[in-house]
TrEMBL record:
SMART domains: PBPb (SM00062). This is Solute-binding protein family 3/N-terminal domain-containing protein. PANTHER family: ABC TRANSPORTER SUBSTRATE-BINDING PROTEIN, MEMBRANE-BOUND LYTIC MUREIN TRANSGLYCOSYLASE F. Residues 1-16 form the signal peptide. It comes from Aeromonas hydrophila subsp. hydrophila (strain ATCC 7966 / DSM 30187 / BCRC 13018 / CCUG 14551 / JCM 1027 / KCTC 2358 / NCIMB 9240 / NCTC 8049). Gene3D superfamilies: Periplasmic binding protein-like II.
Length: 252
């Protein structure tokens, strides 16, 4: 009888745990599949730690980042990770407290470092019509770069693509002069066979807090509150530093 009651309690506990559909894109070291096709990554581990504290279970759905945003807006998926908060996204999404910071840099070819040595801040690029920048579609790189992008001088000098690898190949070929990205993403490029020794950082643009982003259509303020409480608890726990160290990510 005791075993029956114990099994019943365990089942009730499992049933009580809410599931949320999480959209994700493959980008090492944040979210990726290992050689055994198991889902891994810094953001995956942090999300699981947050969900464990909030009483949620994650069901994962892989798709390109642009589609993640569209599906979240429609409510087909309920949550995604590593999101910057913007006025446009506020219209269809709720944002948790930040759970880590993200760095944004401007990469150039190492051989061009001398050519661009007088550039020490983004505004210096406004007077350089010979400098074209590559960036990813539907990505946000923080308030500083967002303001910079809106400058009239830059409107014809931004090259947008869906994936980072083609942008880096254009950079190495000298067809564009810089690429904006999180330097931790260089791990993904290394796996793709990109010669990283030919790249270097021209500018450290900004550190931006990133959030979990929830669909307004299919989540509630109460769910957001539970996630915020879980994030607060995780940030104060030893587990947070252990997860960051596992991926050699700077302690926040």
């Amino acid at each position: 009888m005791y075993r029956v009651l114990l099994l019943w309690c365990l089942c009730c506990s499992a049933w009580a745990q809410e599931s949320l559909l999480v959209g994700w894109s493959s980008w090492h070291p944040f979210s990726f599949r290992d050689e055994q096709q198991q889902l891994q990554g810094l953001d995956i581990d942090l999300l699981e730690a947050i969900f464990n504290r909030a009483g949620f279970h994650a069901n994962y759905s892989e798709m390109p980042w642009a589609r993640v945003l569209r599906e979240l807006e429609f409510g087909t998926i309920q949550l995604t990770m590593s999101a910057n908060q913007t006025a446009e996204r506020d219209l269809y999404a709720r944002f948790t407290l930040p759970y880590r910071n993200e760095e944004t840099v401007l990469l150039i070819r190492r051989q061009d470092k001398g050519r661009w040595q007088e550039i020490t801040q983004l505004s210096d690029l406004l007077s350089r019509p010979d400098f074209t920048i590559g960036l990813l579609r539907d990505f946000d790189y923080g308030t500083d770069f967002r303001t910079f992008m809106q400058s009239p001088q830059m409107q014809q000098r931004l090259l947008v693509r869906l994936k980072m690898e083609p942008l880096i190949k254009l950079l190495l070929a000298g067809r564009i002069q810089g690429v904006v990205m999180d330097p931790m993403g260089l791990q993904q490029l290394n796996l793709a066979g990109i010669p990283l020794d030919q790249l270097t950082t021209l500018l450290d643009i900004q550190q931006t807090p990133v959030h979990l982003m929830l669909s307004r259509r299919t989540t509630t303020p109460q769910q957001l509150q539970r996630l915020d409480e879980a994030i607060r608890a995780l940030l104060q726990s030893p587990e947070y530093g252990q997860i960051l160290a596992r991926y050699r990510y700077p302690l926040q």
